[in-house]
Amino acid sequence: MAASKSVSLAALRAEDSHMRASSTKQAVQRLALLSCVAFAGLTSGHAHADDLRTIYELAIQNDPQIGAAEANYMALREGVTQARAQLLPFAQISGNTTHGRRFSPQPFVDTNPTSPTFGEVISSHGPTARFNNHGWNASIQQAVFDVSRFFQWRQSKNLEAQAAARFAGQQQELIVRVAEAYFNILQAQDKLSSSMAEQEAVERQLEQVRQRFDVGLVAITDVLESTAAYDSSSVTVIVDEGAQDISFERLLRLTGRSYGQISGLADDFPVEYPEPRDEEAWVQAALQNNFDLKAAREAVRSAEKQVHISRAGHYPTVGAQASYSHNVSGGGDFFGSKNNSTNLSLQMSIPVFAGLSTRSRTKQSAYRLDEAQRNFDLTQRTTVETTRNLYSAINTDVARVRARLRAIESSQSALDATETGYEVGTRNIVDVLIAQQRLFAAQFQYASARYQYIMDTLRLKQIVGSLSPQDIYDLNQFIQGNTGIERVKSN
């Protein structure tokens, strides 16, 4: 009996060693050094998955937010034309026509003896004459001196520049939103893959524990611990499936199209420190090129013009007008007439008293200017702060990615040692399960750190105003078209 038990123990150890090696290899193949893992067997037979560039270009055409921003920008551009029109001549032509009838009086003597007017001369309507009066007038007006209109025109240019800066910033924000939505899906997939790998590892561990329990090598508590761990991992898989399914919905909002599969990120994506390695250089670039800062600067200039516009209420205005009129009377005065006239005039208007409204508007504009200046100062300080934070975050991200990679190796070694200790009785099943969880957590954290590095890099370029579609295209070179991420339809 002792010999039989010894043989069984040796066989189980050999089997455990083989299964452990197989489990480690599968886990590494699933997550280690990969930022995105598709379900086994799901990519075969499917159509080519959409990549980051394809989704971005669809978002440009279909995203409601960027579409509304473009329409708003185009509408504000028209303000320049409208303000300039106030400085240009205004010409108009008007005309009129009137049709009428004239009745000629016809006197006669009443010869009816019974009539009260017998013997009297009575007037009556004679033949009817029809006539037409018509005419037209052409005039042209030109502002000669109007300070308000001049500064309104200059202000419209500032408003157009402000709108252009905001629209450019919203275009950059679209790049960030598309990338964020895309990599959120990949991260959700990595979390799901990690949960599934952990579930499979715990399931294999549970089978081994049950085999050991059947031959009397472990206590029932090990079986119960493994069963509880398996049930917990199953719940985690269900939750992560739902999160992965939901993560695809944001692409629908961006592109107006539902996606069932996207491409994953290649494992050779480079993680590098920002260039130049000079924080102040990034800060100066942000102060010069940040679009929010440009818009705030134009808002200050616009507010300055508004002060001049309000003060112009105290100034006189001068305008010139030239007109020509042609009128024809077709016989309304029995003889008819024709009249042509030309008029040249110069008008001056001098405001004397407007109930203190002009003074009040000037003070109001001064307060608005102070508000715009303070908002500019806030935007400038926020830009500097955000630039420094993102520069520091990227350096931290690079170190984090490298540390997470080492953590995978360390966690794998720790798991191997813990499983060996469990075989010889120095570790229990709980230690093994914890070591497995740490390995899968390290693998997911490594993938998540790479996504964080990508997003921080894009945001740093956004804050300094250098983010462009080319950044999406460069990033898309590391998107693997043959590695498809299948959407999981949660129940």
Describe this protein's structure.
With 491 residues, the protein is of the alpha+beta class. The protein folds into two domains: 2-86 and 146-315 and 353-486, Outer membrane efflux proteins (OEP); 91-143 and 317-350, no CATH class. It is 63% helix and 17% strand. The chain contains eleven helices and six strands. The protein has helices at residues 2-30, 52-62, 64-85, 147-214, 220-247, 249-255, 279-289, 291-311, 357-424, 429-463, 469-476; strands spanning 90-109, 121-145, 261-265, 317-329, 337-349, 479-486. The strands form two sheets. The protein has a four-stranded antiparallel sheet with strand order 1-2-4-5, with no helix packed on it. Strands 3-6 form a two-stranded antiparallel sheet. Helix 1 (2-30) runs antiparallel to helix 9 (357-424) and helix 9 packs antiparallel against helix 10. The longest helix is centred in the middle third of the chain and has 68 residues, at 147-214. The radius of gyration is 42 Å and the shape is elongated. The two termini are 52 Å apart.
